[in-house]
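Hi P.,

Sorry for the delay on this. The queue was packed all week, but I finally got your sequence through. Input first:
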Amino acid sequence: MQFSEIIGQQHLKNHLIQSASSGRIPHAQLFIGPDGSGTLPIAIAYAQYLLCKNTGSENEGGSDSCNLKFKSLGHPDLHFVFPVATTDAVKKNATSDSFIETWRNFIIENPYANLFDWYNHIDIQNKQGQIGVDEAQEVLKKLALKSYEGGYKVMIIWMADKLNVEASNKLLKLLEEPPAKTVFILIAENEKTIIQTILSRCQILKFPALTAVDIETALIEKQQCSPSSATLISRQAQGNFNKALHLYKNTNDGLPFENWFVQWVRAAFRAKGNAAVIQDLILWSEELSALGRESQKQFLEFCIELFRQALLINYQAPELVYYQTTVEKFKLENFAPFVNNSNINEIFEELSEAIYHIERNGNPKMIFTDLSIKLTRLIHQK
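Then the structure:
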């Protein structure tokens, strides 16, 4: 992948090119950026620049055979680590090498894809992926060997916040004193999720969300999207090109998030003074608890965004509202008066806490039932 293929982030591309060209190449870097901002594609382009000895802003001019190997992400000195779990195909001792061909095809298809997309792709069902101690041992073995082509070795650790404690401790010494001509690129969405001992050993590079103009241009040029649709989608995507692609392809991972949201808030609204409706909320909670944990987290993030959109309508900021409802007889304009300054902070806190507990393997039926009962109070708060 070359820098010219990457959407936006021109100042970061220039920084990486200049530092590599001048020989100032940190041995460990942490790329921090929101979902869909391009951290992984830029990491791959940077690796290609280093390994192929490319030149210039277009990231070309080096070894033709080396650049060709990057088309399939198959360069022998480019290594990937990413969260995995056992699946029907890999029943034990899951490491990145167990999924490497699947991973390469997945990233070639969409280098802006997120963790939720990856988990769905390998079908880990209700499990949560991690980067474990077996993976750290494999990293040590790979980097103990000489580079295949005599130059740099690049180790890209995608979603480094999924490193468990044992794996982090095993890699600390290597990050501090790596073998010669070894470059680590760690990628995460939030530096607060990375343990301090890892942070202290990395040079941090922060990525902003993409601009609406960058996304609009990319949709038109790369996806042949019509200009009018590209303008609307670029607003809805909020700086996330992966989200823009999902919107363009009209895929919502096959899950009726909006239907569930409407069913939920309608039941919560009716539940005041009507104890019988609580049973509807319990049944709703049971339905949501049957989903995988990543799907549950995605739904709660969707709820946060829809509450935010309603608040913007309530406080007369329609120019910032992009979401268009599809459920019959449900309009954000009618729902907006129930989302206001008196309850929005508590609603956000409860949704965020629910995500926290789901991430830590809490009982989903209890989490959603508790959240629903709290919403019946908050939705009527004036």
